Amino acid sequence: MELSPLNAISPVDGRYRKAVVKLADYFSEGALIRYRVMVEVEYFVALCHLPLPQFKDFNTNLFAPLRAIYENFSPTYARRIKNIEKETNHDVKAVEYFLKERFDALGMEEYKEFIHFGLTSQDINNIAIPYSLRDAWTEVLEPLLHELIAQLTEKADAWRGVPMLARTHGQPASPTLLGKEIHVFVERLTRQEELLKQIPFSGKFGGATGNFNAHHAAYPGIDWNAFADHLVNEILELDRLQVTTQIEHYDNLGAFFDTLKRMNTILIDLSRDIWTYISLDYFKQETQAGEVGSSTMPHKVNPIDFENAEGNLGVANAIFEHLSAKLPISRLQRDLTDSTVTRNIGVPLAHTVIAEKSLLRGLGKLILNEKAIHADLESNWAVVAEAIQTILRREGYPEPYEALKKLTRTHAKITQKTFAKFIRGLDVSQTVQEELLKITPENYTGICNF
What we know:
By secondary structure, the protein is mainly α. It has three domains: 101 residues, Fumarase/aspartase (N-terminal domain) (Fumarase C, Chain B, domain 1), CATH 1.10.275; 215 residues, Fumarase C, Chain A, domain 2, CATH 1.20.200; 58 residues, Ribonucleotide Reductase Protein R1, domain 1, CATH 1.10.40. The chain has 19 helices and six strands. The strands form three sheets. Strands 1-2 form a two-stranded antiparallel ribbon. A two-stranded parallel ribbon has the order 3-4. Helix 3 crosses helix 6, helix 7 packs parallel to helix 14 and helix 11 packs antiparallel against helix 12. The longest helix has 38 residues.
């Protein structure tokens, strides 16, 4: 049965396929195979530069057609490797046999036993996986994050001067500025991205148990550690782990997923805040012709983009949590649990992409309803009590907090007239009274520090 949105088990490959199709270039089975081929080819090329007698007369013009195998990797190649895997029941060995076929086609039969020479499958996988993750991050996820931060920054700047009632514990509190509240998320995301940049994309390369046993047995005069450092750090531009078992530690991978999880948690917080502002009528939402908000209530325009984002971010974080908790744990030199788990790396990244695209769409629909924001401030004059009692403290007025507490907790409705009457009755100078009378919920917004 051909895969379609109607028969896909996962919504990532079904309902949301269009939103995440680019990730197939990094995390599909075909993509993993292509990255494995790339690592095997680059390893062979690096071997050719060693002073080994077998490569003394090697024609370096063959490097270009060798690299073309992965640079022009085709579905035909991928299908051939999967067919070989049906016989070998080993995915990396199938890549090796495929490359041997390509060597035969290129007239390189005498060199084909140096494909996968001395390696274990994890020398390939533990380079291919972080390499593909780095590519996906820099080419898909990081640009999308920057687009989201840019839109939030634009909204924050546009709403910098909009006073808004704040709510602590869900209750009316000292007024704030809408732009500042949005910019909180800009700062949070930016700081987490800076932390993310400090985490290297690392890989392991050292043979079956990390000690270059086979390499050293075959060529004891070669500095294999230096060779591996050059291949991984310089050619492939990853960060080679020095002392490993059969597999890499996955500690850096875990740290990467944990940081992505924190960033997603920040976006959940954003989604819920905007959802709440919409429910308070601070924002209207642009509608599309023919769009239905409810199957029974015609008037409804639901905040579906923010709800979609929150749901997908939650799914992503649940999987990130498992990845970061499970991958750094492996019995002795290695068990196989990491193999099936790493195949799921693309899934939480896909849910993250779906969520961020939903947020971008939702933010783009927001229409500021300043009338509702202003009305909320006007209905909550009690919030200026903080300012009045603080100035009275400055003036040495006796028990100002208690006086404001008595005033604001005994009147059913606190208005501007309530405060004016209270202020005129204070035993303070005319100058201080005038200062207090100028304070309103609209102008009591503090300092805008961004």
